[in-house]
Amino acid sequence: MESSSDTSTSTANANANANANGMTKRSSSRNQNHGAGGINTASSKRRTNNANNRTASSASPRTTYKYGMFLLYVVVLLATLHRTITAWIPPVSPQAVQNKEQTQEEHEPKPVTIPPVSLDTQEEHEQKLVTTINGIEFVKDIDETGHFVRVLKHPLPVSALKLPTPIFLLSPSKSGTTTFHQYAQCGLGIGSSAHYRYPFKKRKKLQHVGRSMSYNLQDNRPLLQWNAEREAQGMRDNLEKRMAKKKIEEAREKKARAKIEAEGSTPDVLDHYQVFSDFDYRYGQNKKTTRLVSIVDMLDNIRTFYPNATIVYVKRDAHKWYHSAKNFGTFLQRLRETAEVSELVETLYEPVGRANFFADKEELWVGFYNRYTDLVRNFAAGHGDGTNYLEVPLDDDSIDTGLIMQQRLGIPKECWGHANMGALNGTQKGLKTKMGMPKTVPRHWTIETYK
């Protein structure tokens, strides 16, 4: 029994040992398998990298090959096109080249002498500018300020006027002042009427008529007299302003001052003109320093130094004047905002004062115009013997204003017209260009031109 038991026990132990050994072997085998798997993974990565390297190394030759084939294709294509085009163009023989050169020589333009323009040709050219109205010949020309105008082909001498000169038009702007100016120069010729600006003899720049007059007004001298010192001082002041703003180099200062003194001493008087209009003068740097020298401020000077002068007043309907002035830029605003005006001018803004004369206050401006008209009429009543005053309406269709002007002044009524309604030949009014006209501007005229 014991031996049997021992045998069983030993057998069981042997089996247990065998099982343990088997588990140990399997575990070792698994561990070995895991180690082999890691080695295999690393090998796989190395193989992949080697493949990528082989691919990258082989990509460059392949790309170069493609580019080379493309360039070869382009070259072949261009060569084919060249052969095709060459086949279309027939060859040029040397004889054809020689014939072409001879033909060019035969047709080469020869020098041509342009004959001088004959007198007949010039007369024909001038005749194209002539217009006949009611048997009176007019020519188209350009005035001193560069505007297209119509004038008599044979201007009248000053002695043909029925009223004495100088002639002062006292109407405010937008009351037919340009119309009257062009009427006067139409009859008397260009350079007879000074309207707003006139050309200096020594400079190309135009000068304000009212500026020259204001200098004499300050010194109680005749309005049309040359005031050399004032003119030179005005130019000096302008030079100082330019130098202060560094608009002129210091090296040029000496030369500029010498030029000013020369120009200031050269007479450039207004008294060779016969007619004057629109000579208000407003000056100053800004709204706080501006000053207006109005036409009515010059009435006493005219009475004192020009007792025999002719006074003309072209009267417009006050409401029409207001609408015209309102549409003329900032004209009404400038009249209201001028910093300094004379006491006489201030009376025109009664009863509310100048500060309340806004552009949209029609009735206030109508009153302004009517008071201005009364002021001129009162002056004319005490000027001379009263025969040298001429008042005409501008916009009364029942009255032939041109005929009245002809009867009183002596200039043909055909010269009277609406200056601001367009040019005589359809060209836009005020175009400052010579446009092939026969005469140049500005021109320097004297009273002797019209005697």
Automatic annotation (TrEMBL):
Keyword Coiled coil included in the entry's annotation: yes
Region (Disordered): 1-60
Biased composition annotated in UniProt, kind: Low complexity: 1-21, 49-60
Gene3D superfamilies, per the entry: P-loop containing nucleotide triphosphate hydrolases
SUPFAM superfamilies the UniProt entry points to: P-loop containing nucleoside triphosphate hydrolases
Domain of life from the UniProt record: Eukaryota
Name listed for the protein in its UniProt record: Sulfotransferase domain-containing protein
Biased composition (Polar residues): 22-34
A Pfam match: Sulfotransfer_3
UniProt keyword list: Coiled coil
Coiled coil: 229-261
